[in-house]
Amino acid sequence: MEIGHNWHKWKEILGDAVGLGERVGMDPETINNAAYRLGDFFASKLDPANDEQRLLKELWEEGNEEERKTLASLMARAAHKASTKH
After folding, report:
1. How far apart, in whole angstroms, are the C-alpha atoms of residue 63 and residue 3?
2. Rounded to 5 degrees, what angle do the CA atoms 34, 38, 41 make?
3. 58 near 22, Cβ under 8 Å?
4. Which of 1, 15, 57, 79 is the most exposed place for a label (fewest CB within 10 A)?
5. High-pLDDT (> 70) share of the chain, %
């Protein structure tokens, strides 16, 4: 299964989801936990659709739990920042 062939569109969708979480009152820790669970799902169930997603999957697979949580948090923050620029 492939998701988000266009990296920028995929990142925008993720950023919009983070923004929605903030608007409904989710605290940063809850958003980061959701990003971690989503990252785990993506890494185990979906085929990367582009080089950027392939790199994220490789980093995810190499990381321990704490590193994966950091990667998820960074990705959520970067996606949210990118989505607020539009």
Report:
1. 22
2. 145
3. no
4. 1
5. 93
H or E element in which residue 6 lies = none
Mean predicted confidence (pLDDT) in 26-41: 91
Whole-number Å distance between alpha carbons of 77 and 6: 19
DSSP symbols for 34-68? HHHHHHHHHHHH-B--SHHHHHHHHHHHHS-HHHH
| Domains parsed from the chain with CATH numbers | 7-84 (1.10.760)
Closest among 43, 20, 35, 18 to 73, alpha carbons compared: 35
Q: pLDDT by residue (tens digit) across 69-84?
A: 999 999 999 988 887 8
The C-alpha atoms of residue 39 and residue 24 are separated, in whole angstroms, by: 21
Token pair of 83 as six digits: 């989505």
Q: Which amino acid is at 31?
A: I
**HSE of 15, CA atoms in CB hemisphere, 13 A:** 16
